[in-house]
Amino acid sequence: MKPSDRIFCALDTTDTDQAVALARELKGVVGGMKLGLEFYCACGAEGFKKVSEVGMPIFLDLKFHDIPNTVAGAIRSVAPLAPRILTIHTQGGPEMMRRAAETAKEEAAKNGVPTPWVVGVTILTSLDQSDLQAIGVSDSVGDQVARLASLAAHSGLDGMVCSPKEISLARAVTNPSFKLIVPGIRPAGSAAGDQKRVMTPQEAVTNGADVLVIGRPITEASDPVAAARAIADSLA
Ligand SMILES: O=c1ccn([C@@H]2O[C@H](COP(=O)(O)O)[C@@H](O)[C@H]2O)c(=O)[nH]1
């Protein structure tokens, strides 16, 4: 695997044509594309298929968070799209995570497509300690991420989403094949925006990130391809 294959670019847009154009430009520069709530709510499965036709792995980041039966149904609905990675929230609990992982396997077999990695979002990278306290979580961000990491691994998930700051803590409670998907990536000098727990791409990879999720530092650059290339080069 080339270091740049670890980079998935977040295409947070409501415009399918724009997403397809950027995916074409970034093909070969980064490893895949991430389509999330903004894109999917506007462009739906048809938009997903158009980006997928560009021929790169797609991370479908819809962060399912509901009761087990509903999450299983949502996974059945998106399974024919054959995403490489699919997100759910670990805070949906162990039964929901087990059902999600089982359903993804069953549906991939039925559709004759590879099973996606089902990965659990732990604590969003836009939250810090005071935000956790505001929602009644008195543990530290690190302790809470480690607890959810262990729960996700024991519930059959393939990996988890955490900030670069918790990579070592997550690794300590999971086995090496458990995938660590890491947003909150900011090259030196980039605006953090709404992200509160950030590191540079190089630091995140050195700490052990499997996948780097990077949006605005690429998509909002005056030259997105050059920005992506500079990030990829920093990992080499
Ligand atoms: O904890 C999380 C989970 C998901 N995300 C998503 O990653 C990208 C990050 O985009 P940037 O522009 O690089 O901030 C975005 O699509 C989020 O939905 C996250 O940031 N944090």
Automatic annotation (TrEMBL):
Q: Which residues form the Orotidine 5'-phosphate decarboxylase domain?
A: 6-231
Family matches, as CDD domains: OMP_decarboxylase_like
Q: What class of enzyme is it?
A: lyase
Q: Which reaction does it catalyse?
A: orotidine 5'-phosphate + H(+) = UMP + CO2
Q: Which Gene3D superfamilies match?
A: Aldolase class I
Enzyme Commission (EC) number: 4.1.1.23
Residue numbers annotated as active site: 61 (for ompdecase activity), 63 (proton donor), 63 (for ompdecase activity), 66 (for ompdecase activity)
Query: Short name of one Pfam family for this protein?
Result: OMPdecase
Pathway noted in the entry: Pyrimidine metabolism; UMP biosynthesis via de novo pathway; UMP from orotate: step 2/2
A GO cellular component term found in this entry reads: cytosol
The residues the record assigns to binding substrate are 12, 34, 61-70, 125, 186, 195, 215-216
Q: Which GO terms describe its molecular function?
A: orotidine-5'-phosphate decarboxylase activity
Q: Which InterPro entries match?
A: Aldolase_TIM, OMPdecase, OMPdecase_AS, OMPdecase_bac, OMPdeCOase_dom, RibuloseP-bd_barrel
Q: Which UniProt keywords apply?
A: Decarboxylase, Lyase, Pyrimidine biosynthesis
What is an annotated GO biological process for this record, any one? 'de novo' pyrimidine nucleobase biosynthetic process
Domain of life of the organism in this record?
Bacteria
Give the family per the record: Belongs to the OMP decarboxylase family. Type 1 subfamily.
Per UniProt, subunit arrangement is: Homodimer.
- What does the record give as the function of this protein? Catalyzes the decarboxylation of orotidine 5'-monophosphate (OMP) to uridine 5'-monophosphate (UMP).
Q: What is this protein called?
A: Orotidine 5'-phosphate decarboxylase
Organism annotation = Kordiimonas sediminis
